[in-house]
Design a protein that fits this description.
about 210 residues, Phosphorylase Kinase, domain 1, 2 domains, five-stranded antiparallel β-sheet, two-stranded antiparallel sheet, 3 helices, about 20% helix
Length: about 210
């Protein structure tokens, strides 16, 4: 049976340690403590330098697979550290979805630390995003949100249709416009897909290809 949101397995220390013993026994005796629980994943700190990332629902699995595939390739070119996967966990009778052992990024979450060097922090973030947003390889997975670009309005969900093609353009001219049928025109149609999308929320940061 395919797991659903309602049957997301509970995450506790016993489960995480048993998964490590089954698939990565050399890590199983390291100190383990819960770090943060999000909507889609939860994070456990493993020793001083590692973290275990577990999906909380089936819908998080594809994104985690993308992280396993692409973060090791992205990490060396980025000016700031990212939690690059170092081990992968596979679905088993103990846990129905893939999971990851990644590097632990030291520091305080942005919503807990005071911004004492604002200009420097802004420059660091801008440099990180500039290094991240490069044309994607041809075999990179597509972002489902981007796949809606250029679709006729009649094929979009009803909640996305109001306002299409009515009133003055709300976007700068160089970014293109949306016609009555929902198709796009302008320079953004010709832009290549970027290698990743990053949500710069204070905690937890989300990176997806």
């Amino acid at each position: 049976m395919t797991p659903t949101v309602s049957d997301a397995p509970p995450g506790d220390e016993r489960l995480v340690r048993s998964l490590l013993r089954e698939q990565h026994p050399d890590l199983a005796e390291l100190d383990l403590r819960r770090a943060v629980t999000g909507w889609a994943n939860e994070l456990w700190r493993l020793g001083d330098e590692l973290a275990v990332r577990l999906p909380r629902r089936a819908g998080a699995s594809p994104g985690l697979r993308n992280e396993q595939r692409w973060l090791p390739a992205l990490a060396p070119r980025l000016p700031l550290p990212v939690p690059a996967p170092v081990r992968t966990g596979e679905p088993s009778s103990s846990f129905p979805w893939p999971w990851t052992v990644a590097t632990w990024v030291h520091g305080e979450p942005g919503d807990r630390a005071a911004i004492s060097r604002g200009h420097r922090a802004a420059d660091s973030l801008a440099g990180f995003l500039r290094a991240l947003h490069l044309p994607a390889p041809t075999d990179a997975p597509a972002n489902p949100a981007r796949a809606r670009v250029g679709r006729p309005a009649r094929r979009l969900p009803h909640r996305h249709r109001p306002g299409l093609g009515t009133g003055p353009p709300r976007r700068p001219a160089h970014m293109g416009t949306c016609g009555p049928d929902g198709t796009r025109s302008g320079s953004d149609v010709l832009r290549p897909p970027l290698s990743a999308r990053v949500e710069t929320r204070p905690r937890p940061a989300q990176l997806s290809v």
